[in-house]
Amino acid sequence: MIKKLKLRNFNHSSEILKLLKTTGYENLGLVPTMGSLHKGHLKLIEKCSLNCDKTIVSIFVNPTQFSNKIDFANYPQSIRKDVETIRKTNPSAIIYTPSESDLYTAPAKAEIFDLDGVDKLIEGKHRKGHFQGVATIVKRLFEKFSPDYAFFGEKDYQQILVIKKLIKKYKLKVKIETIPTVREKNGLAMSSRNILLDKESRFDAKIIYESLCIVKRMVTKSGFDKIKDFINKLFLFNEHFNLEYFYIAESCSLKELESFNPKIKIRAFICVKVQGVRLIDNIALN
Ligand code: AMP
Q1: Which of 13, 108, 121, 160 is 20 to 30 A removed from 254 (C-alpha atoms)?
Q2: Is the distance from the beta carbon of residue 52 to the nearest atom of ligand 1 less than 6 Å?
Q3: Ligand 1, from 72, 138, 156: best to mutate by most atoms within 8 Å of Cβ?
Q4: Is 12 part of the annotated catalytic residue set?
Q5: CB of 152 closer than 6 A to ligand 1?
Q6: Ligand 1: does its nearest atom lie under 6 Å from the Cβ of 182?
Q7: Which ligand 1 atom is at minimum distance from the Cα of 32?
Q8: Pocket test for ligand 1, best of 30, 31, 33, 151 (most atoms within 8 A of CB)
């Protein structure tokens, strides 16, 4: 009888390093996540598995990127289900589910990085210290496993720029691969937080992506003031949706822009609160 191989997740990076040493590999890919996996995460794991002969998926809700304790406490977690889901996507993926002590000495604290201000704009303006926490955890994962590639989603477009800046400034060796935002049927960007919404709000939250699509259609014809006014009014009339921010910014620097210039690549960024849940999205405008 063939003994069923018991695949497990690893709580200690040392166990993974040992495994990597014994099995060997050509290209190691890392997919950092905070778990509660959805199809967006699975696309990243698929891309990593196609491009690399070894894939590590990390699942860790990183405390240092949350400035709001309630938000951290309420962040959805489903490690068992996540492990099963990853196994179905890539049965040989190495799943890293560390405890806080494998990554931080207590109390967990973010390091301070000079990221030339890219961490201070847009989302960074509204979640103070968020990207320092992100940079801390991602740098630690890079240093632990020395992946050749790491995979990130455009859903968190600013995060990609922050990580690229981190890599450049601290001369890290890893290469970054990205995927477009994966959306629910109604257009809402998939997010682990979506399960915190009731059915009606989750459906109605399609307005976020719809508004971005309208902005995309307006951008060459209307001034940015008019566009911002349209967005402000749209959410003002929707009492269940609170607009936290809307920005139009240069794609490469995230600097806010006042008017359209066809020579400059731009994106729109939005954050809306629904039932106390913060939802972010972004779109390329040209
Ligand atoms: P998170 O678990 O939210 O920290 O996300 C882990 C990774 O998945 C990050 O690189 C995210 O940008 C990416 N991701 C999250 N949601 C989506 C989505 N809807 N489409 C594509 N990538 C996503």
Answers
A1: 108
A2: no
A3: 156
A4: no
A5: yes
A6: yes
A7: 6
A8: 33
- Evaluated on CA atoms 274, 195, 271, 64, the torsion sign reads positive
Three-state SS letters, 250-275: ECCCCCECCCCCCCCCEEEEEEEEEC
- Residue-range domains of the chain with CATH: 9-179 (3.40.50.620), 192-284 (3.30.1300.10)
pTM summary value: 0.96
Residue 91 CB coordination number (10 Å): 10
Residue entry with tokens 């709001």? 68
Per-residue model confidence as pLDDT tens for the chain (286 residues): 444 445 679 999 999 999 999 999 999 999 999 999 999 999 999 999 999 999 999 999 999 999 999 999 999 999 999 999 999 999 999 999 999 999 999 999 999 999 999 999 999 999 999 999 999 999 999 999 999 999 999 999 999 999 999 999 999 999 999 999 999 999 999 999 999 999 999 999 999 999 999 999 999 999 999 999 999 999 999 999 999 999 999 999 999 999 999 999 999 999 999 999 999 999 999 9
**38, 41, 126, 130: which one is catalytic?**
41
Rounded to whole angstroms, the Cα distance separating 274 from 270 reads: 13
